[in-house]
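Model: You mentioned two targets. I'll fold them one after the other.
Researcher: Yes, keep them separate.
Model: Target one:
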Amino acid sequence: MTTVLFYCQHSVGLGHLMRSYALCAALTERFRVVLLCGGPLPSGIEPPEGVEIVPLPPLGVGPDGRFGSHDPRLAVDEAWAMRRRRILSTFRATRPAVVLVELFPFGRAKFAREIVPLLEEARAAGALAACSLRDILVHRRADQQAHDDRARARADAHLDAVLVHSDPRFARLEESFAPAQPLAVPVRYTGFVVRKPATASRRGRHVVVSAGGGLVGEHLLRTAAAAQRATGIPMRLIAGPLLPEAAWRRLSAEAGPGVELVRSVPDLGAELRSAAASVSQAGYNTALEVLTSGIPALLVPYAAPEEDEQRRRARRLERLGAVRVLDPVRLHPEALAREIERLPQFTPRPTAIDLGGAARTAAILYERLRAAA
């Protein structure tokens, strides 16, 4: 069976990994799928059936914001060396027809030392090389023009296709990627990537509050716990497997009797479909789970000086009438309580966004291979 070797590096959150899992599930219907996973594998979230996971010594940003090894037995340099050996040995053992890399070269520049050699091996072996890319890129770097120009050069040198997991009516690549010279490599829009929805559950009275992987979600979760005391509305707080242990202890100490705390769940979509409303950040996967659930939702996008992706996604969905948005600078218990009390009166407007990205990605790669045969 034809093999796809998929490289995914998640760091601050789980969004990249969860989207990759959804893609892998669709790819297994046409290919053997081997996933190189460069971040910590979260407990309680199983990979799709039939996907072969090759874990790399995990590297990424920790709770203190510093980049480092997540394996205490390995120094950073040791982890880098072991990762590169494992990546290249996996390529040579599997002999894939397709190498799919998540985000690079449009992000993950720090990992070029191991991704570029993989792509060079793919080119030498005649494998198809493609990038799996989300809808909106970070576009507030201090060196943004130089970054975009480097990314364009690497994409043209190493890739055969860029697969943008977006509906172009919602977000186009050129809106957040503007190199001085246009990309020569073909760009294909696949539609958004979502997991297959779980069976609908009976709708409850509670509000689900979630913060993606949880690494940067403590402020939202603790504010929600405080807002619950003001509203009396029952809440189910999903902390996320990456929420630091110290933050989990603070949250546990502050949660009152109307708050149910959960460390992680295997399927956020199923949780939302059994809730009365949702409060969440605005990462790619969470926003799509909110849309497909159809419940009233408030997005509180995560924002940082160089990170405006979630804010832009949230505002676009708000303009479509699909969600309500609370600016993160206004995130305090009183404001959040008012917004939660208004949610039952909000009816989300149905959207016509293309959600067929997982199956279309598999079809595009399959057709490219057939055309090259």
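Model: Target two:
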Amino acid sequence: MEANRFGAFFRQCRVRQGTALREFCRLHGFDAANISRLERSQLQAPKSRAKLEEYASALGLERDGDDWVDFFDRAAVSSGTIPADLLDDKELVSKLPLVFRTLRGGRVTREQLDDLIERVRKA
């Protein structure tokens, strides 16, 4: 699923700006080879929040807007982690095994699922 990967999303955001790769890198002081590898998913998303914020800002993503959040979520998934803001919610984290079980096709009661949905909506 190319469209769901961090690198593809990064490229999509850059292209939407109308900026060629080398021009984007020149304008923002990034290494074109590294950004190219990142966009082709040959380089993992950085783990550094500061670096991700630098990239998101360079891509013109509105802080805390939908694309901003999506960018950070994709970076977390790319590195095999759960987004930090979700980990801060201890009650939500306690429900993650239910999500994992559901995704694996395990048996989940309707009540458990409704409870999880309600907690996610409140988060």
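Researcher: Noted. Anything on target two?
Model: The CA atoms of residues 42 and 89 lie 32 Å apart.
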